[in-house]
């Protein structure tokens, strides 16, 4: 399969790594963010595990029909303070599988 680019995987089209903000107080999650950002994907088995564990889209987003009315429940994954880091890790795993291993990763893309 050809390498993944931002046109075929729309969930990461505008992904930019989080810039660690200095808001005048210490962000206690910065060490954890740096840890997740620093995870390197160098083995295909590990990359597959990452792609299986981290969903490609928020599992909570959905439309519900109730009493003849339709309600949209928005994606709640953005409430996770490490959301951007996990999306980046999943993208690195997909890229490794496609670019380095030449594997078809379409089964991991929503």
Task: Give a verbal description of the structure.
- The chain is of the alpha+beta class and 110 residues long.
- The protein is built from three helices and two strands; from the N terminus they run H-H-E-E-H.
- Strand 1 (62-66) and strand 2 (69-73) form a beta hairpin.
- The two termini are 17 Å apart.
- The model is unreliable at 1-17 (pLDDT under 50).
Key features of this structure:
alpha+beta; 3 helices; flat; two-stranded antiparallel ribbon; about 110 residues
Helix content: 25-40%
H/E series? HHEEH
How many helical elements?
Answer: 3
Largest sheet: 2 strands, antiparallel
Mean pLDDT: 81
Approximate shape: flat
Radius of gyration, in Å, reads 16 Å
Give the secondary structure arrangement, pairings included.
Layout: H1 30-37, H2 44-53, E1 62-66, E2 69-73, H3 83-100
Antiparallel strand pairs: 1-2
Helix pairs in contact: 1-3, 2-3
Short description:
By secondary structure, the protein is of the alpha+beta class. It has helices at residues 30-37, 44-53, 83-100; strands at 62-66, 69-73.
């Amino acid at each position: 399969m050809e390498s993944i680019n931002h046109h075929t995987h729309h969930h990461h089209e505008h992904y930019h790594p989080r810039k660690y903000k200095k808001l005048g107080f210490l962000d206690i999650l910065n060490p954890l963010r740096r840890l997740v950002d620093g995870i390197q994907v160098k083995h295909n088995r590990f990359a597959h595990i990452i792609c299986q564990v981290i969903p490609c889209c928020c599992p909570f987003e959905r439309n519900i029909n109730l009493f003849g009315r339709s309600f949209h429940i928005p994606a709640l994954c953005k409430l996770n303070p490490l959301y951007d880091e996990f999306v980046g890790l999943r993208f690195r795993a997909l890229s490794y599988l496609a670019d380095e291993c030449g594997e078809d990763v379409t089964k991991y893309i929503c």
